[in-house]
């Protein structure tokens, strides 16, 4: 099992964020190679991830499951626990390129619903006066790389904060963009693009408020009757 865990962690590092389908695609051959039974359920996968986390927390790494409403999916995210926008932009980049990451992250996070039109990633990004301007082709290359790494997500010609940013930079995002980015008061994790109370407009994770409303029928924040439909609209 140890070899399976090591191989799986390596795959998580390479992919940055993984759907359950991808997790299955990785575990199937890995477990077969090491003649170990494959975790058969989501619960078994979560248990495997918890065991891996016990061994990597000292190394400043963690694997975190996150619900991502924009894709109506749950992902497993590989994260460094001490990351900041300056450090995530990766080694091998110039100061200007790292600055571009921070500026783009701030630009998206400062929008109310934390997304921008795709061309906004190349226009109106104000860099420090002393820095050399980046070519648009280089910006596109970087954005593509950071999207593959899960820091941003492109959907319908818009760019959203990606699952890895939400996990790895959650402290930075909620402390620097607290007006748009808040933690769900029920589970204390960051919540975006999810369900809102019709009275006070505060946002919760759908699953969190659903569980809460099994016992009560009021908003935990404002105390008014909860009226927002819980089911995801299919339209
Ligand atoms: Zn929650
Ligand atoms: Zn409310």
From TrEMBL:
Q: Can the keyword Metal-binding be found in this entry's annotation?
A: yes
Protein's cellular compartments = Chromosome; Nucleus
What is one cellular component GO term in this UniProt entry? Answer: Smc5-Smc6 complex
Check the record and name the Gene3D superfamilies matching this protein. Answer: Winged helix-like DNA-binding domain superfamily/Winged helix DNA-binding domain (1.10.10.10), Zinc/RING finger domain, C3HC4 (zinc finger) (3.30.40.10)
Protein encoded by which gene: Dyak\GE18416
Q: What is this protein called?
A: Non-structural maintenance of chromosomes element 1 homolog
Subunit composition and interactions: Component of the Smc5-Smc6 complex.
Which UniProt key words apply to this protein?
Answer: Chromosome, DNA damage, DNA recombination, DNA repair, Metal-binding, Nucleus, Transferase, Ubl conjugation, Ubl conjugation pathway, Zinc, Zinc-finger
User: What sequence ranges are listed for the domain Phorbol-ester/DAG-type?
Assistant: 168-219
* Organism encoding this protein: Drosophila yakuba
* Family as reported in the entry's similarity comment: Belongs to the NSE1 family.
| Reactions the enzyme catalyzes | S-ubiquitinyl-[E2 ubiquitin-conjugating enzyme]-L-cysteine + [acceptor protein]-L-lysine = [E2 ubiquitin-conjugating enzyme]-L-cysteine + N(6)-ubiquitinyl-[acceptor protein]-L-lysine
Which residues constitute the signal peptide according to the record?
Answer: none
The GO molecular function terms of this record are: ubiquitin protein ligase activity; zinc ion binding
InterPro entries listed in its UniProt record: Nse1 (IPR011513), Nse1_RING_C4HC3-type (IPR014857), PKC_DAG/PE (IPR002219), WH-like_DNA-bd_sf (IPR036388), Znf_RING/FYVE/PHD (IPR013083)
Its GO biological process annotations read:
double-strand break repair via homologous recombination
EC number(s): the record gives 2.3.2.27
Principal place of residence: nucleus
What superkingdom does the record give?
Answer: Eukaryota
């Amino acid at each position: 099992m140890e070899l399976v865990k090591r191989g799986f962690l390596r795959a998580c590092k390479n992919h940055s964020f993984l759907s359950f389908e991808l997790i299955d695609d990785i575990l199937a051959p890995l477990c077969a190679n090491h003649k170990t039974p494959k975790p058969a359920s989501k619960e078994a996968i979560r248990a495997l991830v918890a065991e891996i986390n016990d061994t990597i927390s000292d190394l400043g790494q963690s694997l975190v499951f996150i619900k991502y409403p924009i894709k109506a999916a749950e992902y497993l995210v590989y994260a460094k626990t001490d990351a900041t926008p300056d450090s995530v932009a990766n080694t091998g980049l110039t100061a200007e390129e790292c600055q571009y990451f921070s500026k783009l992250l701030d630009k998206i996070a400062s929008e109310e619903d934390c997304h921008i039109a795709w061309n906004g990633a190349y226009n109106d990004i104000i860099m420090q006066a002393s820095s050399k301007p980046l070519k648009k082709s280089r910006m596109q290359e970087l954005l593509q790389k950071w999207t593959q790494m899960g820091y941003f997500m492109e959907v319908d010609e818009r760019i959203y904060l990606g699952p890895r940013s939400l996990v790895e930079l959650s402290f930075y995002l909620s402390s620097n963009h607290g007006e748009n980015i808040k933690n769900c008061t029920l589970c204390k994790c960051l919540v975006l693009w999810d369900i809102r109370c019709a009275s006070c407009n505060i946002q919760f994770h759908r699953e969190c408020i659903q569980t809460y409303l099994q016992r009560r029928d009021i908003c935990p924040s404002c105390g008014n009757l909860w009226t927002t439909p819980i089911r995801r609209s299919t339209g």
